[in-house]
Amino acid sequence: MPSFSRKSQVQLATCHPLLQRLFNRVIVFYDCTVIEGFRGKEAQNRAFAKGNSKLKWPNGNHNKYPSIAVDVGPYDVTKRGVNWANDGVEDRADLARFYHFAGVVKGVAEMLAIPIRWGGDWDGDTYFNDQKFNDLVHYELTGPASQMAASPVE
């Protein structure tokens, strides 16, 4: 059975308890790695400058503590490194893995009644070709849970 590395555990611990609950369940079914949870001012502005985020600090969902957003991907793909300039993937097989993984995450979230949005389907319509910005590792809480997060923290 897969389990999170220490680094993934540390990143996930910076996230809202509902995201922790979700991904602690996902890891039972699908080997994955937590890339980033909470993101401070410097890291957020760096992500914005590189084009990895559309939002400057403190407007990102990663900027609240606990974070209401988390970046997670399939372990075998993300361990090779994520090429953000190419939607986080190096080839079509890797792209398929991100979509497959997102389906697992969305399914587990639905079973646990945890409302989330995925960065590969921002509008939630299950049509993936209408996205202007693909962030295939990004998952964020929606609804009332997203409103309960603390204020931005540097």
Q: What does this 3D model show about the protein?
A:
There is one protein chain. The chain has 154 residues and is α+β, with helices and mostly antiparallel strands. It has a single domain, classed as Muramoyl-pentapeptide Carboxypeptidase, domain 2. It contains six helices and four strands. The protein has helices at 6-12, 17-29, 41-49, 75-78, 92-111, 144-147, and strands at residues 32-36, 69-74, 116-118, 138-141. A four-stranded antiparallel beta sheet has the order 1-2-4-3. Helix 2 packs across helix 5 (92-111). The radius of gyration is 14 Å and the shape is globular. The protein starts with 5 loop residues before the first helix and ends in a 7-residue tail after the last helix. The relative contact order is 0.18. The mean pLDDT is 90.
